[in-house]
């Protein structure tokens, strides 16, 4: 191969495929490779045979749980926010034309030993089972404050300042209970920890507005999900990249990452070919057991434990919702990390008609990871099949400006893509030498095609 590329990209996860699409559209020459025969990398959607190959190698696939074509089980399930940035990116780039989305039926949160719908408006706050009578009134006032806030109208500020006050101060002003702060911070603003409390309230305000405006878009929950699994998403971006000249190669063994004496990237060797490029972008698993120029480029920061569960019923106590995002805030179960439950069904073409899928995940804190999922697993009722996985969370040790090797972070334990957006922005900035990702904005009315 004599061709010279601007970027070689390793791994076809969502983050990498979004980046390759954006770079191709930007006029860059991109070669994208994956060691697997399928798209998606760590976040692929597997069929029944692949599921057994991965989790029950050598064992026969049961005959009574459907056929391959009924299955598209995400190894890392993630939902999109209807008004989130990735959705906007999909619309802006027209990738939506390759995909069909369906909205998620419900968004739930765990509080005081039971689950309830996350209220998204002051009206819902008043009816919510999450709070007692007096707390509902306080929450209603809080949500009214958020909804009515206008930067240029001090009358709507109630003496508060979103830019200088920490979020705790706003919570204090409305006298909200700790458990209410938990669901607002973790199930609406989707924070991974409580450090947001001490940062300016503006950030939390923006996230709550994203949540409520996303709910308002299609009505039931703020989340949407692609039919046939999240693995459709990287494939959609890959198609876009291809239209703009990007080249894709699956099933490629990566033998060596070649660098010069100073450690600067030269090319990628696969078999007896070396592909040369100005820069490399790669998912961190490609660097895990492959030191570059004798140097380790990634480190493990934590592990995620996930349980993929097949159920013969919807998640109990959700009004038979065919799909649900359920968050168990860390404080509610005495943990340092939230537990996420993502549930889907045949309505999303990911399991056969009589089955439901529920994937429980969290960041590992002890030496008994599976036990840590218990608060989530206990909410599911009888579990028909369960596949447990433990995956390291990897991150780059260096930014890559010297080596021209730009490594992404592993997808985290959350079941939404908002953290992927940040990752795309971060790698884009690093890999383009500080350029800010600027998406031409289309009309806000133009959303993704979403089924009710
Ligand atoms: C399921 O996966 C297997 C193994 O990768 C593959 O050979 C087969 O074509 C897939 N089946 C369908 C229906 O996608």
Explain this structure to me?
- The protein is built from 13 helices and 20 strands.
- It has 452 residues and is an alpha/beta fold.
- The protein folds into two domains: 4-99 and 226-301 and 395-451, FAD/NAD(P)-binding domain, CATH 3.50.50.60; 106-219, Guanine Nucleotide Dissociation Inhibitor, domain 1 (Orthogonal Bundle).
- The strands form four sheets. Strands 1, 2, 10, 11, 12, 13 and 19 form a seven-stranded mixed sheet that branches. It has a seven-stranded mixed sheet with strand order 8-7-15-16-17-14-18. A four-stranded mixed sheet has the order 5-9-6-20.
- α1 runs parallel beside α9 (232-243) and α1 (14-25) crosses α13 (418-431).
- It is globular.
- It starts with a strand and ends with a strand.
- The protein binds 2-acetamido-2-deoxy-beta-D-glucopyranose (NAG).
- Residues 47, 49-50, 68-69 line the site of 2-acetamido-2-deoxy-beta-D-glucopyranose.
Profile the largest sheet.
7 strands, mixed
**CATH domain topology of the largest domain:** FAD/NAD(P)-binding domain
Uncertain segments: 441-445
Mean pLDDT: 92
């Amino acid at each position: 191969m004599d061709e010279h590329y601007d970027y070689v990209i390793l791994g076809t996860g969502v983050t990498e495929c979004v980046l390759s699409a954006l770079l191709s559209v930007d006029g860059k020459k991109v070669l994208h490779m994956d060691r697997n025969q399928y798209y998606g990398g760590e976040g692929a959607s597997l069929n029944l045979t692949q599921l057994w190959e991965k989790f029950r190698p050598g064992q026969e696939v049961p005959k009574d749980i459907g056929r391959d074509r009924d299955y598209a089980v995400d190894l890392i399930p993630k939902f999109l926010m209807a008004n989130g940035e990735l959705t906007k990116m999909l619309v802006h780039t027209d990738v939506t034309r390759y995909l069909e989305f369906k909205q998620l039926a419900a968004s739930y949160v765990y509080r005081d030993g039971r689950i309830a719908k996350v209220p998204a408006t002051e009206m819902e706050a008043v009816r919510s089972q999450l709070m007692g009578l007096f707390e509902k009134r306080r929450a209603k006032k809080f949500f009214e404050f958020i909804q009515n806030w206008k930067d240029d109208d001090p009358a709507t500020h109630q003496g508060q300042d979103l830019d200088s006050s920490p979020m705790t101060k706003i919570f204090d002003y409305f006298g909200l209970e700790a458990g209410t702060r938990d669901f607002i911070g973790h199930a609406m603003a989707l924070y991974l920890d409580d450090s947001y409390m001490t940062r300016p309230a503006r950030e939390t305000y923006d996230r709550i507005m994203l949540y409520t405006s996303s709910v308002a878009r299609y009505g039931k929950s703020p989340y949407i999900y692609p039919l046939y699994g999240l693995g459709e998403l990287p494939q959609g971006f890959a198609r876009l990249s291809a239209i703009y000249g990007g080249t894709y190669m699956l099933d490629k063994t990566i033998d060596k990452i070649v660098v010069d004496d100073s450690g600067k990237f030269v090319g990628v060797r696969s078999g007896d070919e070396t592909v040369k490029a100005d820069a490399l972008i790669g998912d961190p698993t490609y660097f895990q057991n492959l030191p570059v120029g004798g140097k380790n480029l990634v480190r493990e920061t934590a592990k995620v434990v996930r349980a993929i569960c097949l159920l013969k019923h919807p998640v109990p106590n959700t009004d038979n919702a065919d799909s649900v995002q359920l968050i168990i805030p860390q404080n509610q179960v005495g943990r340092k990390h939230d537990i996420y439950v993502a549930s889907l069904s045949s309505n999303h073409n990911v399991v056969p008609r009589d089955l439901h899928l529920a994937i429980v995940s969290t960041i590992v804190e002890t030496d008994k990871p599976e036990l840590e999922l218990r608060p989530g697993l206990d909410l599911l009722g009888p579990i028909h099949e369960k596949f447990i996985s433990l995956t390291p969370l990897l991150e780059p040790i260096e930014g890559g400006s010297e080596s021209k090797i730009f490594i992404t972070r592993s997808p985290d334990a959350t079941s939404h893509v908002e953290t992927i957006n940040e990752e795309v922005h971060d790698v884009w900035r690093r890999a383009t030498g500080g350029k800010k990702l600027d998406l031409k904005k289309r009309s806000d009315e133009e959303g993704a095609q979403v089924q009710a």
